[in-house]
Please model this.
Amino acid sequence: MSDAPITPRGGPAPAFEVEDPLAVAARRRVRNYKLTVRAGQIGTFIVIVAGWQLLTHFKILDPFFAGSPWGILLRLADWAVHGTAYGSLWLQIWVTMEEALLGFAVGVISGVVMGVLLGEIPLLADILGPYIKMVNALPRIVLGSIFVIWLGLGLPSKVMLAAVLVFFVVFFNAFQGVRSVDRNLVANARILGASRLQVVWHVVVPSATTWIIASLHVALGFSIIGAIVGEFLGAQKGLGLVIATAQNNFDTNGVFGAMLIIGLIAVSAEGLMSIAERRLLAWRPPAATETSQAGL
Amino acid sequence: MSVSTEDGIELTGVTKRFVTPTGSTMTAIRDVNLRVGAGRFCAVVGPTGCGKSTTLTLTAGLERASAGQVRVFGKPVDGITPNAGFVFQTDALMPWKSVLDNVALGPKFRGMATRDALAEARRWLGVVGLAGFEDHYPHQLSGGMRKRVSLAAALINKPRLLLMDEPFSALDVQTRAIMTNELLRLWEQTRPSVLFVTHDLEEAISMADLVVVMTAGPATVKAVYEIDLPRPRGAVQDIRFTPRFLELYRQIWESLREEVERTYALSAAATARRAAS
Model:
């Protein structure tokens, strides 16, 4: 009473020829490719930075406007040792990150809740639809000004701006995800005895998770943008304020230095997000690209 | 033939119309009368797309009849039919849950403690021959194995009524034969009433007590045949060559063929109309 050869995980694995020359060659191809990519990345970095440094050193580009890699490093070192005009550099970084993360959390949670709610209740979606589209069409920077007026120069106005930016990205994805749930799965759960809430929790939300997670990468970037722009519009601390001050002092190196910090924060956050994504979506079959990359 | 309608499925004058997105109505089934007694295995055959599946969704309570009445276990269907299990044509397993969690869903939804539900699910995976696969995800299993999981997930609630919508049509021929035997074995243990929709007449005769032939759409019951092959049937591969099976097959096919040909003629005409306009 068994179809196909059934081998439970941990059972005898099929005999595998380790020294198969084809497999060895394929592995080498993959490794060489990866090394080429890495070398290319480093090469690109060196060409850009060295070119920039040389051009400004020989005054082909005016260092006053273009800044220079060395100048940026000196500026960053100065900030790290002596602090910025608003306290230590670490405090500025922490303030901006705090705003961005809080905004991210608020935006994601509210986006998911609203997306699931409107996706599950079509009547609500039809009633609120036009208003949501209208608010979404507003340039967010205008909202930023309102938030500063309402909530002052402190943390809450930045959190709100970041949250609004994040909300719409997550909301639309969650909504679409809920709408595209496999009707068969819902029918099956209902026949198995699931209540409405159980259907939402066991079927709708997990199934929309793929969509929601896809939006989180963009949302993360938006939360940082929200925090920085909020600080630009009016703040007492934060990297956005540091950039604004550097701009007013025509300190090109300062602007680039702060940009570099923001870039590094964004890249590491993106890395953490990818790890979380792999954890959450472990159930998915491996993508076709991964197998084709093995080149076998 | 003594049929206790109190304990089976009873469709009386059932009609189902759907409103299409363009606003016109489409009649899936019309005036269907059907009785399946408790513990009987009823196969429904008919041409492709004639509305066979609609009888299942109405019986399960997923849809409401436009006219007529559906009664299950003596009660009119109103909301999801309790004590029913459903096996879909395509997999209805949650891809993000392990095999064990999938099977445990039924008891959990019905309020069983998680630990007991998991123990029960483990036992059922053993019954369908999948011990050792508890922690796999559905996509890691073959089509036949996923079907076994679906069976376990449907049977774990000990349904008195099992509804199956072309459950094996996506499987290859060998796997399908194995699954057919497997289903009969499981069915003979608990004997729920079964409504089994299929387009495969051989499959229908070899498994069922009753074979219902439906007409071309909008579908209605054309004829009901008693299958008097002895039980337990044993391997369905062997029973196909018995004289009685062949006799029944010829008889029912005669009736079914007319409908299949009519459906074909209708769809050919519709295609020609579309091409002309």
In short: Chain B touches chain A at residues 57, 60, 62, 80-82, 84-86, 88, 90, 92, 94-97, 105-106, 109-110, 129-133, 135-137, 139-140, 142, 144-145, 153, 157, 174-175, 178-179, 181-182, 185 (CB under 8 Å). The CA atoms of residues 145 and 162 of chain B lie 19 Å apart. Confidence is low (pLDDT under 50) at residues 1-5 of chain B. The first strand of chain B starts at residue 9 and ends at 19.
